[in-house]
Design brief:
The complex is a heterotrimer.
Chain A (H helix, E strand, L loop, with lengths): L2 H33 L6 H16 L6 H28 L6 H22 L14 E3 L2 E5 L2 E5 L5 E3 H23 L1 H11 L1 H6 L4 H23 L11 H14 L4 H21 L2 H18 L11
Antiparallel strand pairs in A: 1-4, 2-3
Helix pairs in contact in A: 1-5, 1-8, 1-9, 1-10, 2-3, 2-4, 2-8, 2-9, 3-8, 5-6, 6-8, 9-10, 9-11, 10-11
Chain B lengths: L1 E12 L2 E12 L3 E5 L6 H9 L6 E6 L2 E2 L5 H7 L1 E4 L11 H13 L3 H15 L14 H14 L4 E5 L7 H14 L4 E5 L3 H7 L2 E6 L2 E6 L1 H5 L2 H8 L3
Parallel strand pairs in B: 3-8, 3-9, 6-7, 7-8
Antiparallel strand pairs in B: 1-2, 1-4, 4-5, 9-10
Chain C lengths: L2 H22 L2 H26 L8 H18 L3 H23 L4 H21 L1 H4 L5 E2 L6 E2 L2 E2 L3 H24 L1 H11 L1 H5 L5 H27 L1 E2 L6 H14 L6 H19 L4 H14 L3 H9 L6
Antiparallel strand pairs in C: 1-4, 2-3
Chain lengths: ~300, ~240, ~325
């Protein structure tokens, strides 16, 4: 019976990872889907979101909820602006050429990362969650009087973590609405399907690109803000989530929201589960090779209609 | 002697039958034109001949050998040469290097021989004076000629030209016709063409494709008078 | 003088210059230049694939590390001497290139970049996972006693420099030779227009695979050499950073030129050396350089020189 609590714990932790990962991966997927470029600096937008969150929250005394709320409202748009600036100054100039964009975004990665190192410093700093109640999770067992509940020691989560999961679901729903119900979503999907035709229909492709790049970065930053009360803000924190996002996007298929969500669940939960039982390094090795082999043998991923 | 033949050659893209069951024979030494309205399947068919596109069914025989499963580069080595519908040369390399690349696997490192054959090919098509220019700097018409030079420099048995006169000026087209007439004795030529004037002036025989199937085959005169062919071109087919 | 003659003269002159510098450079720069020469071999290996064949790999650290660990683990745990251990490093690089090449060539473009990145990342994680043998990030020192070939102590700065120069010259002349032969020109043709090259009768896949083998093995030679000459092996050399470096060096110096990789490595080495005196955030320089290069000078230093005036530069 000891196994089950561990599994459930792994599952819960995995869901939190999946929630945050799905937001971040969605950002990456949108950028690739619409702009056809891979943004290697995506992880740094995540990190910037977290660092800005710390910065903003530290301006507030009193109840941490205010600081957190402010961070949640301010950090993503600020990061989005940074991304749009990068788009206008660099990506637009190289005309979104796929290979040059990868090299340029690698450069951006180092610039953003190192500037953060110079200003924020090498330390990891925590941000207090807006609310944080320990919740123990009961399991069902067979007792003398029939089915009953018991609370295994150590099996629990926090109210904040549950809130993160719910927030992610809500945000994903919101993005889905944005893509399918709004004019902007329509413009985005049109540009994704056929850039030349979209231009012929007077869709301002340049502006759509800038907006999508900003949106992608904003989503990553949002993920960073959500995770920072659980994990601390550190200038190198973008590296692992970037790799995971790549994995999710490739396995889920590019430009596919349902695919991204399912893949994020898969990766997040299995990462959580495997890490509980095995070495996280081994888990990462398997995941990394998994991406490579999916790309080699199943270029469309599991759901996507187009390949890289 | 039949140089190239296909039996039941077909290609399907999902539900679309781009080429259906084509039987075709090309005798050695002939200049054959392959014509047909847009979407008739000409480029797909020729793609299967050259090996760029795999066949869904049927066979391709070249010089007596079944090449259906042979990769494109090996077919080239077996004696085919191919020019692209949209001119495809090495824009950033000089003209002479473009042709040299076409030749080198034949001359096997003998740079003197390579240089000589490059000059011959360039003179043949009439752009020898531009040998040191970058291919990308040439006019479109000259780039097309360069591509033909690359093809003929390989001394192929079969030269496949995919819409070679597209985008050429009238005078360039006349030069092209002369060139083809001059080459006709040395190699077999398969020509996809839309320009009926060119076809009438160069072809010994014409094959008409429509809807992925052969509509008609015959001499230029026969095809010219064929009612079904006229109907197909006018769009009622 | 023919272009070929001019090329050989120039490159021999470069080697002669480097040889002369052995006797005049102060100790600090002497050691740096030895390092740069070995790393330039890595850059030249990378250039073979990226500059000449047009394939952008983001995972070359895998090859560099294969050489480094192939050599150093053999010395450390099996007690072999340096010479045979170097061969193990080379063999490791060759084997890794073959496996990665066969698998990754099934993809192209952006997918190829990500696949190579993933393989290298898996390699880095494997180095960490087997930390019992590799000592992971911390790495291990290769004892002076083991760093000898035929009785010559390679930890001595002058021997080290000369050994680095020999390695450098070998890699450079291999590159020069390849570039001047038909094989090298086909690689360039593949880079310029792959489909056209196929339809001229070339087995494009085989050429690309050979390019990867050559590139990976040269990178492994650099890795093995670096471990041997500087006496240390560590996981950093398998990390993403060490996959980005050769890209940076080659872009800066000039992709598709023989001297470009060396120029780029030298330049970047000193640029980072100088900026690490100013701040711990020295990789900022790398970032800015990459962005500026992609925007304004994709040809790199030697590439621009070739484009503007010295046309015969290989």
């Amino acid at each position: 019976m000891e196994l089950v609590p561990y599994l459930i714990l792994g599952l819960l932790e995995g869901l939190v990872t999946a929630a945050v990962l799905s937001l971040m991966a969605l950002g990456l997927s949108l950028v690739f889907g619409v702009m056809r470029v891979v943004n290697v600096a995506h992880g740094e937008f995540f990190m910037v979101g977290a660092v800005l969150a710390w910065q903003i929250a530290s301006l507030f005394d009193g109840h941490p909820a205010w600081g957190f709320l402010a961070a949640l409202l301010v950090a993503p748009p600020l990061t989005a602006c940074l991304a749009v600036a990068a788009n206008q100054l660099v990506l637009k100039r190289i005309e979104y050429d796929p290979e040059r964009t990868i090299v340029a975004t690698i450069g951006l990665l180092y610039i953003i990362q190192q500037v953060t190192l110079m200003t924020y410093g090498p330390d990891a700093r925590p941000v207090e969650a807006p609310f944080n109640h320990r919740l123990s999770i009961p399991l069902v067992e067979w007792t003398e009087t029939g089915l009953g509940l018991y609370w295994p020691w150590g099996l629990g989560t926090t109210s904040y973590k549950l809130a993160v999961i719910l927030a992610a679901v809500a945000l994903l729903g919101g993005i889905w609405m944005l893509m399918t119900r709004t004019r902007f979503g329509l413009l985005m999907r049109a540009t994704q399907l056929d850039r030349e035709t979209a231009q012929a229909f007077a869709i301002p492709v340049g502006k759509v690109y800038a907006a999508v790049f900003g949106l992608g970065a904003g989503l990553a930053a949002l993920a960073g803000v959500l995770i920072v009360p659980i994990q601390q803000a550190h200038y190198l924190m973008g590296h692992d989530p970037l790799l995971l996002s790549f994995i999710v996007v490739i396995i889920g298929g590019l430009g596919s929201l349902p695919g991204t969500v399912v893949a994020a669940l898969l990766i997040g939960v299995s990462d959580g589960m495997i890490s509980v039982f095995f070495s996280p390094t081994l888990a990462k090795i398997i995941a990394t090779l998994g991406v490579a082999f999916v790309l080699i043998f199943m270029p469309q991923g599991l759901f996507g209609k187009r390949s890289l | 002697m039949t140089l190239l033949s296909t039996r039941g050659l077909s290609r399907q893209f999902g539900g679309l039958r781009a080429v259906e069951n084509v039987d075709f024979d090309l005798p050695e030494g002939q200049v054959r034109a392959l014509i047909g309205p847009n979407g008739a399947g000409k480029t797909t068919y020729v793609g299967m001949l050259s090996g760029r596109i795999p066949a869904s069914a049927g066979t391709v025989t070249f010089r007596g050998q079944d090449v259906t499963n042979m990769p494109a580069h090996q077919r080239i080595r077996a004696g085919m040469a191919y020019t692209f519908q949209i001119t495809s040369v090495y824009g950033r390399l000089p003209v002479h290097e473009n042709v040299a690349l076409a030749l080198r696997w034949r001359t096997e490192g003998d740079e003197k021989e390579t240089a000589k054959r490059v000059t011959d090919a360039l003179e043949r098509v009439g752009i020898a004076d531009r040998a040191n220019q970058l291919a990308g700097d040439l006019s479109y018409g000259h780039q097309r000629l360069l591509e033909i030079a690359m093809g003929i420099s390989q001394q192929p048995r079969l030269l496949i030209l995919d819409e070679p006169t597209q985008g050429l000026a009238d005078s360039e087209i006349e030069d092209f016709i002369k060139l083809i007439r001059g080459l006709a004795g040395e190699m077999t030529i398969l020509l996809i063409e839309h320009n009926i004037h060119v076809v009438m002036q160069t072809a010994d025989a014409i094959t008409v494709l429509n809807g992925g199937q052969i509509l008609a085959e015959g001499t230029p005169k026969e095809i010219h008078e064929n009612a079904a062919v006229q109907a197909a071109y006018l769009g009622t087919g | 003088m023919s272009d070929t003659r001019k090329s050989w003269s120039l490159h021999l002159a470069v080697v002669a210059l480097l040889l002369a510098l052995n006797f005049v450079l102060p100790e600090y720069h002497h050691g740096n230049l030895a390092r740069v020469m070995v790393l330039a071999c890595y850059a030249m290996g990378y250039n073979m694939l990226f500059g000449y064949t047009g394939l952008l790999s983001l995972g070359h650290a895998l090859f560099f590390a294969s050489g480094m660990y192939g050599m150093s683990l053999t010395v450390q745990h099996l007690g072999w001497s340096a010479g045979p251990a170097m061969l193990v490093g080379l063999a490791g690089g060759l084997a890794m290139s073959l496996v990665v090449g066969l698998l990754s060539l099934r993809t192209a473009g952006v997918a190829f970049m990500i696949v190579t990145l993933m393989f290298a990342q898996a390699g880095y994680l494997a180095v960490l996972y087997f930390g019992e043998y590799t000592r992971g990030d911390e790495g291990f020192v290769i004892q002076k006693a083991s760093r000898q070939i035929m009785g010559i102590d390679l930890s001595d700065p002058i021997n080290r420099y000369l050994a680095a120069l020999i390695l450098f010259a070998t890699c450079m002349f291999i590159t020069l030779r390849v570039v001047q032969t038909g094989f090298g020109r086909v690689l360039v043709a593949i880079r310029e227009n792959e489909e056209r090259t196929r339809m001229l009768g070339y087995d494009v896949h085989r050429h690309k695979l050979l390019a990867i083998l050559l590139s990976g093995t040269m990178s492994a030679a650099a890795g093995a050499g670096y471990g041997l000459l500087f006496g240390y092996a560590g996981a950093t050399f398998a990390s993403v950073q060490y996959s980005i470096f050769p890209l940076l060096w080659v872009l800066l110096g000039g992709a598709g030129t023989v001297l470009g990789p060396f120029v780029g490595t030298l330049f970047m080495f000193y640029l980072i050396d100088l900026s690490s005196d100013i701040s711990t955030a020295y990789m900022l320089i790398a970032g800015v350089t990459l962005v500026l290069l992609t925007l304004f000078a994709p040809q790199g230093l030697v590439g621009e020189l070739r484009r503007r005036s010295v046309r015969w530069l290989p």
